[in-house]
Each structure stands twice: as C-alpha cells, then as structure tokens.
C-alpha cells in the first residue's frame, strides 16, 4: 500500500492507497515546530493496523520547516521503503509554462497531474486552503499559471482583528443574502462574496482560455479542506475532488518507480 503525505500551511493530509483506490484519508493540524519523531508517532497512530502494510511513501510540503522533518522521518522510520518527495528533479510529466517554473508549488503540480489524468481536458483547479489557489491546465496537461486569493479563514480572521465591532462567526449559509443581524451580515458577505469572487475569476479565466484556442469543455474542479464551505454557493464549479492532491502524489510516485 502507498502512503501519501500532503503538508499544507494549515493541515497535513494523509492518504492510504491500494493501487488506484484511496482506501482511507486523515487530516491533522500543521505545526511548523513538529519533529520527525512526533510526526512518525502521530502517523503510526492514525494508520493503526495498516501501519505495517505500507510499501511506499510519496510526500510533498509547502512548509519548509516541516519538509525538513518529513525527510528526517522517512530516513529514520521508513528507510527500507521506496519513497518520493516532490521537488525539482522528480519526474512529474507536467510541463510548466510559466516565467519561473521553480516558483510553482509542489501541491499545484500534483493537482495539475491529477486533474489532467481524471478529466483529460482543459481544467481550472480551485484549491481552497490557507490561500485559495486557482490553477489553469491546458487540454495537453500543461500548467499555464493561475491566480491566488486570501483564503476564507484568513479573510474572516483579518476582518475580526481589524474591526472592533465585528467577530469571527461560523461559516454557514445565513437565512438570506440580506443579513438581519451582525452575524448574518458577516456570513452573507463572506459566503456569497467569496463565491462571487470565485465565479468572477473562473469566468475571466475560461474566457481567456477560449480566446487563446482552448475550445474543449473546461472542467472546473474544487479541492482543499475549505472547499465544502463555499462550493454550493458557486455557479461555475463543476466537480468536487477532495482527494485531488493525494491522487496526484500517487501518480507522481508511480511515474518515478518505472
């Protein structure tokens, strides 16, 4: 079985794969101070009875401090297993058609590979995390670039910290767009405002893709831990794949075992 590890700024996601199937997945909070031994102990606890059945590991990290500890953990606790850490020099099969390919995060590369594998057409991937990453993929599987926006939680935290009369609220759909109290006004502005931002960006991106000759259907895919908060309020998202990054890691691992 393959273990995949996706270290993001807010959460670490683990996946356990049997061939093409994602059997189980877990999430834990990212702590930049975590040590290799703590990570190994936590992971073994999550895997439980499956811990001894792991035959390979694929990992990526957008947090440099945790990436260092992931390396140490794999070298100390999984030394005998084949492993792949997504970084420059690792075969991904994803052409990066941007000004500086070294700037492209490993999570964006994994998402690109998985999106093209599953949909086989031009894609827009929206990864709802600490930041919201919007990645654009050609029908040939090329990474074309994208856009970043502050994530939902960052927006809520910033508003609560900078406005004395406002506070953090639960992100659920209010009774109506026109809020009748402070909580509903905040919920409406965040939920529907964020959905409108996503729809506006996707509309501009898809129009630009078609203007540059991408005439195929364009899949718009949501992923990331915060996606369920807003996807039902959008009109442009056509698919929800919460396992997209983990599946991308699996595909990269397979490419590097040939």
Automatic annotation (TrEMBL):
Record family assignment: Belongs to the type III pantothenate kinase family.
Keywords assigned by UniProt, alphabetized: ATP-binding, Coenzyme A biosynthesis, Cytoplasm, Kinase, Metal-binding, Nucleotide-binding, Potassium, Transferase
Record text on cofactor binding: A monovalent cation. Ammonium or potassium.
A Pfam family hit: Pan_kinase
Protein encoded by which gene: coaX
Compartments reported by the entry: Cytoplasm
Name used for this protein in its record: Type III pantothenate kinase
Active site (record annotation): 107
Catalyzed reaction equations: (R)-pantothenate + ATP = (R)-4'-phosphopantothenate + ADP + H(+)
Residues annotated for ATP binding in this entry: 6-13, 130
